[in-house]
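Today's session is about reading a structure prediction critically. Students often jump straight to the picture, but the first step is always the sequence itself: look for stretches that repeat, for charged clusters, for runs of hydrophobic residues. Only then move on to the predicted structure, which in these notes is written as discrete structure tokens rather than atom positions. Here is the chain we will use throughout the hour.
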Amino acid sequence: MKTRQLGADGPTVSALGLGCMGMSAFYGPTDEEESTATIQRALDLGCNFLDTSDMYGPHTNERLVGRAIAGRRDEVVLATKFGIKFDPADPRRRSVDGSPEYVRQACEGSLERLGVDHIDLYYQHRVDPNTPIEETVGAMAELVADGKVRHLGLSEAAPDTIRRAHAVHPITALQSEYSLWTRDPEAQVLPTVRELGIGFVAYSPMGRGFLSGRFKSPEDFPQDDFRRYNPRFQGENFQRNLALVERIQELAAEKGITPGQLALAWVLHQGQEIVPIPGTKRRSYLEENLAAGDVELTDQELERIAEAMPEVAGDRYDPVGMATLNG
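Below is the predicted structure for this chain, in token form.
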């Protein structure tokens, strides 16, 4: 497995990481036994960068990851996140908390659930509009000083927020959605992290699985799969986006690889500071995804791929989710 360094002084991680969210939440039925085997197979193959969050489940995904890596902690660069809270009375209602008190509380909870004494990369999952980023990152920096966290990250943060945070304590990685069908970071975020020497972790690098070509209808998603209710997967948007994916399938066929591998290889070729973390809960898909790390693309192929996927139809999230993004 090829490796990349996250940030100027960050950890060396596998060029492709593993997003663990779908093993416990949001993407339909789960299978803890297969998910555990998938995490362990990732480590066997040299994929050492695991990504979770306290809000996946909530809490259940951290416990699953913790059990899966028990006895293999030294093989893992472990990332988790904090900041998104569910209303106990109504799990559909969420809030964002970046207060210093909550930073410390959340970290202690994650350490306990993961069964570890430190977190390698600790992200603020969403920026709290009611707490200055300087206060949040200041509290996160105290966790580093205490040895509970090694490196700090932000997720879905705007350039000004990134700069302000980085001035308080070095930010090792910025995580945002980035793929052939979500290129928003290219305008301002990627130039900012490159200037500051911050790594970029791309989540949903296969367009939440859509770029794999496996989905032909909204009915292909289980009732409890959040994609079924995502704007890009509904009505006319779905059909318009499906036509774009068919172009990717044609290009992948020419190359003799799967559409998902083509999508991942494209992201990997956008810069050495970028580490995609495709999520899966099955060993077969994991192995397919990791093979994308060996795909070489010429400049001409990269251009053809990008042209095949112009602006997609629909927002990334519903209005509630879009409101949590740091503009």
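Discussion point for the tutorial: The mean pLDDT is 95.
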